[in-house]
Amino acid sequence: MYKNISKLLKTSILLLTFCCFAPQNGFSQCNVITNTDQDGDGVSDISGQDKCPSTLSQIEGQRATVINEYSGQEVVVRFPKKLKDYICQDRVPLDAAKIELLNQQAKIRREQKRADEKYGKYADMKSSERKAKIEELELVLVDFKTKIDSVQTLLNQVNPNSYVEFVSSLLDSRGAVIQENVKFKIRIEVNQFGCLPDDDNDGSPNIVDLCPGEVGTIEAAGCPDRDKDGIPDKEDRCPDTPGSVESFGCPDRDGDGVPDSEDECPDTPGVIKLAGCPDRDKDGIPDKDDECPDTPGSVEAKGCPDRDKDGIPDKDDECPDTPGPAETKGCPDRDKDGVLDKDDECPDVPGPVENKGCPKILEKASRVLFETGKSIIKTVSYPLLDELVALLKEYPDANITLAGHTDSEGEEADNLQLSIDRAAAVKTYLIEKGISEERISSTGFGESKPIDNNGTAEGRARNRRVEMKLSNKQK
Question: Would you tell me the crossing angle of helices 5-20 and 127-157 to the nearest 10 degrees?
């Protein structure tokens, strides 16, 4: 009859050990919302013992300054909205163990009573056997009492208040996230009547009261709130004008999170970094300052594309692929002679506009005089060629091209050769004066490229020439 008593005792002891002494890994599964304790604060609702039966609704979803029992530090955190899903009590497993032990103890006492009654009916049974059975059960009851007393001792030592366990973000004093996925264990301290302390009696419990020494409103977390917008005056940049949390308590007509007082585009939603103005093409330039609001561009080009990065929008740049100054509409002028490179026949050597940016000396030297029908330079032309030599030495990065031409008098083949020889004669003169041969090229075109009428003496004189052009040195 009593063969299961030892097994029963061992089971009870194991239950006690598991509930009271086993290490807890992770969060406890100990929801304690019951019919007799609706708010889970550990104070029974029976007979009106809990004077504040809505404890959780006062703090759930609110920012709180609390002690995290996992770290031992004071932290700022926001409680979960459904706080009752996270309520736990340290005494729950101990209560369960005590109840189980008391139930087992009662069962043994019933067994003891049945044994006593049974042995009393049979006078022929030895009194020693009856005594042994009773003593066996008494020992079991003593063991149970010891275990029950141990549980009660632990119950007297644990914090009677409920606590919540959850994972959330660690906040700073203004409510901004510092660290995510932090594990919290926070004690819900209530008095004997189940009420949360509220030192300033403003309806906002100390645990969530951001201004515990000042009478405030529940909506403003216990802080004064003159404009009744739910934002504490100490965090409200416009404490006398209702506003939104996103705009720090100030009016924000377009709802973009930038207060109207700081919003350069208060009626058009924009981005915070651009003072509340929109930026359709996402180039960092507000549409109001962007001349090309639908095409990404640069600040220098007023929000428009600028391929050569010279600060002049492509749409206004006459040389969009070559950097140049604004005064020349984005076109370069390397020799600074006022003739843009795109129009300058001598872009690295200054020259007047009327001469297409080339020095006048080229035009003069092109009228070099030769012996009639020969490629011998007349001495009267030496001073002009010497000026040309000086120019080439002043601009060492310039090359020169010589092209000989004749009039149409005589045989065409002879004229071609004569033009080649005359250009070569000028080249030889320049080389002898110290100009590198690598910088000079010469050729002849004979009578094929006249610039005037060969039917007149004056026209033929103009056609007999050596044209000279400067260009960049090939590097």
Answer: 10
3-state secondary structure 337-390: CCCCCCCCCCCCCCCCHHHCCCCHHHHHHCCCCECCCCCCECHHHHHHHHHHHH
Would 132 be classed as within a structural domain? Answer: yes
Dihedral angle sign, alpha carbons of residues 287, 291, 293, 296: negative
- The answer to pTM > 0.85 is no
Torsion, CA 189, CA 191, CA 197, CA 199, rounded to 10: -140
Number of domains present in the structure of the chain: 2
Contact 366, 464 (CB under 8 A): no
Predicted local distance difference test score (pLDDT) of residue 338: 87
C-alpha 335/C-alpha 396 separation (Å) is 13
Short-list 330, 362, 325, 331, CA closest to 346: 362
CA separation for the pair 203, 221 (Å, rounded):
9
Q: For residue 384, what are the domain limits?
A: 353-472
Non-local (6+) Cβ contacts of 29 within 8 A are none
Q: How confident is the model at residue 307 (pLDDT cuts 50, 70, 90)?
A: very high
Residue ending a domain, among 141, 165, 189, is 165
Q: Return the closest-CA partner of residue 220 out of 206, 207, 204.
A: 204
Element (H, E) at 221: none
| Residue-by-residue DSSP string for 297-345 | --TTTTTS--TT-SSS-GGG-SSTTS---GGGTT---TT-SSS-TTT-S
Q: What is the pLDDT of residue 14?
A: 47
Cα 291 to Cα 455: distance, rounded to the nearest angstrom: 59
- The separation between CA 366 and the C-alpha centre of its own chain, rounded to angstroms, equals 66
The packing angle between helices 92-121 and 127-157, to 10°, is 170
CA distance linking residue 321 with residue 341, whole number of Å:
13
3-state SS, residue 167: strand
